[in-house]
Design the sequence.
């Protein structure tokens, strides 16, 4: 029997120590977000391949785990595949001239083999969910989703092909109350997990665009410009300048653009500076709203962190339409979560525009940081073990179980196990798992 | 844009009302099983196709959602498929003579297209997990697993292709302490969910076999006999008799066999009757242990249920080796959970025998029953809404958020939403979602 012991490539088994932290976090997340009026929802892990491939997922669409069709549908697809393959095999010239598959040398389309796939995020499924169930949901709808997503990424340390995402979204709320509530809820949670001194970087997609327009970049080039701007963290102002010039943009435009970033330093004054400087290029409501978000969160926050205006914040996904934000922690290089407003995605399903805004915490990164910091789950360590000598007569065993029942009913964790020959070793091992109390029961002793 | 609104066939979106019950149950399950010394573990939802197809899963192996290979591996597999297809196409006589695929009419093997699949249960992944991580795990290892599994079953009411399973297993414990602890933990949980008057039917695979041997059935026919016996619930003693005779077994054997079931009525006396009657056909340790399990659980139980010896209990999976058990509830026709000892499965991975015993509750059935009984989640309904007039100036908004912060910190659920034009309708709707308190904030009124 050739059974494989390791998990499939890029996925992992989660050991009890990590699970204890995960379980604690999941409980805390549900509890905390509930106090902000969020309700849990769940969608299937499997989605229609059409939805997963609808250009909402950017690069993630290349990483889909596709599920094979079944039964007649599979037979039909394979049949078709073989026929198209058989036709293209003999005629080498034709195959070479056609848009053939590079590696098989055949003009084939394998997409017919699959009709569904594993979700790569929770945002697309939520859009489908909302459009399917809007009649049964309140408006605005404050949704909490926790669930696994899958991406067939190149395996690398600390990044897995199955990982948990944890998203909160407010659908049907056009005002910045959505942004404020999302940021307050997320930061309150992080505070409860003892994270301190982090910052929420915030920007607005419309400010990004207005800055580019003001500097004289053509609208068709915005995405190119933003991809370069996004590297500011790594290559600095000079690096960004060099790359922009390298793309052939005029030094006038580049200088005008970078001058803005030079002067916008992250405080609330920077928002006002940008507002004045951009003039008619920016709707003042955008910058005023951003200011209100920042001051409201700063005043009503329940954790130790800073709001920072960051005009270099881009966020990859093209579906964002308004404010965007990211969690930065010094102890962790990159982002440990982010989100923003995406007012147009739901409309693509539902037909009518539906404002939407979401915030996703990097669940796996947060667990990693807690593990690295040797996080102690509150209330853990109250574990008791009953060591029962082998061959305990059943009348005595009854009394032991009765005793365990009482302690368990009082909320205590009691593990009833058979006493091993090497009792000391057994107790040492259990102590390592967090057992602090041991009670021993012998056949020949009274209890 | 052709986006599909419905979930994929046979899977479902879970609405907030059901999610509240699910979340509550998940929390209660973790909390309750923790008091019995179980620790959470998690395995990837995706497993090697070799493991999923290793004959541990019985009928479920026919229902696997298979995942398509990616990149070069897929190209190679498709290439091979096309070549094998192309070869078998022209030579019709050869194709007909070979073990060809009935529907494509081609001699092809589609299994090469897939290298992994979605797990159909949690037992097989746990066996792999234990063999992969045994060095890092305590012995005995008491594992709690909650997670989704997938089966491409024919869609039908109340049965879904993705569903949650909830298993507890004790690995490395050969004594009946495992069975006792598993049954006590599971029934304590059911009691906390207000289930009453249910029963745990228990039998032992070795008693099943001894009864068949004693009656004179040949060992090679046991499975056939057990499949018929398993129908006792539906077709009764007479129906079983008819089917057994229909299979050509001697009326002497059939009468001897059925006489045993006629006399074993479900109480502890029946275990003793079977023990005496079977004599040398049954190791007395088996029946003595069964008796101890029943009396121990009856005496140490923390819920309102009965233990019943049921010699007709078969349980489908062939991997069971010792005691087997099932939860029966009158309010629900079928079983709402079950389990048993499977001492040989882990050894198939690990090489050395490892005793194992597990109990799985039918999570989805329990949720269904709770929904049908209009189960109220304890502590729910303490929900408060702040209705904020549109265009609230930011200084006043700050005060509102500050007030919400205080209430939330005290554990209250506060939903801050924009007041709608039809305020009465808005409040009525929120009342339906369980909001009991409303506070209104106006632009022109002092707070």
Sequence:
């Amino acid at each position: 029997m050739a059974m494989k012991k390791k998990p499939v490539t890029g996925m992992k088994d989660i050991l009890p120590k990590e699970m204890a932290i995960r379980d604690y976090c999941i409980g805390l997340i549900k509890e905390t977000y509930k106090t902000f009026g969020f309700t849990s929802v769940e969608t299937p892990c499997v989605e229609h391949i059409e939805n997963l491939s609808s250009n909402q997922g950017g690069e993630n669409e290349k990483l889909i785990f596709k599920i094979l069709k079944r039964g007649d549908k599979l037979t039909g697809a394979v049949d078709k595949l073989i026929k198209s393959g058989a036709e293209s095999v003999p005629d080498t010239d034709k195959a070479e001239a056609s848009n053939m598959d590079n590696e098989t040398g055949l003009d084939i389309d394998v997409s017919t083999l699959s009709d569904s796939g594993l979700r790569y995020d929770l945002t697309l499924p939520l859009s489908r969910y909302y459009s399917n169930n809007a009649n049964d949901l309140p408006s605005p709808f404050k949704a909490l989703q926790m669930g696994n997503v899958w991406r067939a990424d190149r395996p690398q340390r600390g990044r897995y092909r199955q990982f948990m995402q944890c998203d909160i979204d407010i659908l049907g709320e056009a005002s910045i109350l959505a942004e404020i509530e999302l940021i307050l809820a997320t930061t309150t949670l992080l505070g409860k997990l003892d994270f301190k001194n982090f910052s929420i970087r915030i920007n607005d997609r419309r400010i990004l665009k207005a800055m580019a327009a003001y500097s004289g970049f053509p609208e068709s080039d915005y995405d190119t410009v933003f991809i370069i701007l996004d590297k500011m963290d790594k290559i600095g102002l000079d690096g960004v300048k060099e790359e922009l010039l390298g793309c052939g943009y005029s030094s006038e435009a580049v200088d005008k653009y970078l001058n803005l970033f030079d002067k916008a330093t992250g405080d609330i004054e920077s928002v006002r500076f940008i507002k004045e400087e951009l003039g008619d290029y920016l709707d003042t409501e955008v910058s005023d709203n951003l200011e209100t978000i920042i001051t409201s969160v700063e005043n009503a926050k329940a954790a130790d962190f800073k709001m920072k205006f960051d005009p270099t914040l881009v966020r990859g996904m093209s579906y964002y339409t308004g404010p965007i934000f990211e969690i930065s922690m010094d102890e962790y290089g990159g982002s440990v979560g982010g989100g923003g407003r995406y007012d147009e995605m739901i409309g693509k399903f539902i037909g009518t525009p539906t404002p939407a805004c979401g915030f996703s915490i990097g669940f796996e990164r947060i667990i990693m940081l807690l593990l690295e910091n040797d996080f102690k789950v509150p209330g853990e360590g109250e574990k008791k073990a009953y060591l029962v000598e082998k061959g305990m007569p059943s009348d005595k065993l009854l009394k032991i179980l009765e005793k365990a029942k009482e302690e368990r009913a009082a909320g205590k964790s009691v593990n009833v196990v058979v006493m091993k020959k090497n009792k000391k070793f057994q107790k040492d091992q259990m102590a390592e798992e967090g057992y602090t109390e041991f009670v021993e029961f012998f056949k020949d002793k009274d209890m």
In short: The first strand of chain A starts at residue 39 and ends at 40. Chain A has a mean pLDDT of 90. The two ends of chain A are 48 Å apart (CA to CA). Chain A touches chain B through 116 residues (CB under 8 Å).
